[in-house]
Write a structure and sequence with these properties.
Layout (H helix, E strand, L loop, with lengths): L4 H15 L1 H9 L1 H9 L38 H7 L7 H16 L4
């Protein structure tokens, strides 16, 4: 399995934070600046997004991260319900749309 550039960067950030207490403190206090200083590149967050880094290294604590609830239409229309339930396949487009909605439901994505 090949890792993306983002996954590699994330792994590097975590590794450095484990090894360098000063970097970890800066990462928690100002994550954008800490990452920009590490990479030498400007970090472009999507508009309206904030980057938060939390120190979760306490060995006597179990952490739960609760992600944002996905905003998606989980309702299937009549044609999509018929396709999913084994009814007629009147068009491939309807089958594709139904499959896409189900896939997105399980993967937490919107297409």
């Amino acid at each position: 399995m090949e890792f993306t550039q983002e996954q590699k960067l994330y792994a590097e950030i975590v590794q450095i934070a484990w090894e360098d207490e000063n970097f970890k403190k800066e990462l928690v206090a100002n994550p954008v600046e800490a990452i920009e200083n590490l990479t030498g590149r400007k970090l472009n967050l999507p508009k309206g997004k904030t980057l938060v880094a939390r120190d979760q290294t306490a060995e006597d604590t179990v952490y739960i991260n609760i992600p944002a609830k996905p905003e998606m239409d989980l309702e299937l229309d009549e044609n999509e319900l018929e396709v999913v339930s084994g009814g007629s396949l009147d068009t491939l487009g309807v089958a594709y749309d139904a499959a896409k909605k189900i896939y997105n439901l399980f993967n937490g994505t919107q297409v």
